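Extended Data, panel c. Modelled sequence:
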Amino acid sequence: MPPSAPLVGVQATFEVVEPPRVDHLYFWALQASFGDGRRSHGGAHLGLQWNDRHPGQTAANWGGYHHSGRILDGSASPLPSITDDPNTRDFPWQARNPYRFRITRVADGWRGEIADFVTGRSVAIRDLYAPGTQLISPIVWSEVFAACDDPQVLVRWSAFGALTVDGEVVTPGAVRVNYQAYEAGGCSNTNVLFDGDGIIQATNAERAVPQGSVVSGFAELG
């Protein structure tokens, strides 16, 4: 991120381009940590899930952890949850529809909101009661519990942005690619593709972009 005043909001647009075809959990999220200028107070992740415990296998999640390790408490969600999970709610997302994930500061903590660009509907998943006055270390990720050779899934991230405490909107100048190590349970056949203004994360694909690559302007390797 460029130098700026402290961040009080972050967002990204997300789309499932090629959906899962197996009954394993997929979780795609925007994540940030909560800080006060001196230390981190934990963090949380906001996103969509392919989750066979929910109707249509579609769900939304906004949850996280205090720096002590405990799960963060939060307000009641307006969305139902067949599993009665306060973090994971029933959410009928559709493949090839863009959604905006947004995390913002509110009076009692941090709000996770998902907007559907097709219907125009926006829903605040709930508020998490967490300390901190600013957001630090924003990232986006795919967490996949499927086998490495299961059918390919493609998701697209774009329109990264952040809001400062002064009301300025800023965008990252570059992103850094990170893969879970194979020794830690990751797959060696995941890859990142770049299509001009967005980034595609792919499973079951030949890895062409190395670990640690930096993408500047989202168009070419830096």
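The chain has one domain: 7-221. This feature is highlighted in the accompanying rendering.
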